[in-house]
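Lab notes, practical 5.
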Amino acid sequence: MKLNAALLPALVATLVIMVMATQSSAAASGGAGQYLVPGYYNAKKCGGVEPIVREEVYKALNADRSKGAALVRLFFHDCWVNGCDGSVLLDASHTNPYPEKVAGANIGLRAFDLIDAIKARLETVYPGVVSCSDILAFAARDAARYLSTGHIDYAVPSGRRDGVASRARDADATLPGSTFSFGDLKRNFAKKNFTVEELVVLSGAHSIGVAHYASFKDRLAAPRGEIDARYQRALYLATKYRPVVANDIRDETDAFKKDAGYYPTAAAASGRRDYLNNTYYHNALDNRVLFKSDWALRTDSFALGKLKEYRDKPSEWDADFADALVKLSRLPAEGKNFEIRKKCSATNKPSY
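Output from the prediction step:
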């Protein structure tokens, strides 16, 4: 069929738009033209990748259950800053003395040693194949599964490459703060195209892990109505002798619980320490949450309704939390240069 010459410019324009749309879709999936799909390594005939990650995570958590919370937090802090690119894993170097991991917003980040160990093992089996950013995404999923006794599980889209840029100032400018108001939180999450519902869902991760005094010291002077008085006093007494407190009062010492007048719900009592379930929502509605940003969710009527919903429907929260982690894992990596790192703590080329 012979094309009319007059139609050629329109056809070319249409093709350009189609190509641009395809490139945009790729960027939305993984950044820099990366397509993220579940089972990516199976398709590359590297079917042992995810089982190896799971084995290493489970072995580590059997020895130290607290590393599970550390992995989930590490994953969020990586993806929220310039997308899921493994940049939070990079150590300081002479060319980059202030990477993300030294940012004030990243105080207390840990489990880097576990990611490094997983990477070292994978390099012996599949050298140069598995990105550190994918390892972190798999490890966070496996930690969530372990800590929830299988109630939270999902397929991880993978096929990421590792970024080469990591700046502390980006983390401090981007990560939500523990003293944020509801408006601050809503704007912060909206920038990443996350809804208020997803904000409430992801806040449920505060049923695990610990927090440093600097992140919650303002709560010691919070006015009545914003924090349970006995819980506030228990925090004051505890921090006279130690710098960290469990995010979930369920995981605190018996002395702390007695000071706080805490009588756990059936859901809390049935769980072990760092048990990833909906106890956060019980605590939030009892005014026994550690951060001002947690309390702030009660100041919005829609968010308050979701707090009550997830308190009463634990299986619904399990499913929604899994979906939110999948969405988090798809935040596109920003930047122009990517690689598969040989070591997760350093770029392949020191000159970056």
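Observations recorded by the TA: The longest helix spans residues 8-30. The beta strands are 37-38, 157-158, 162-163, 210-212, 244-246, 338-339.
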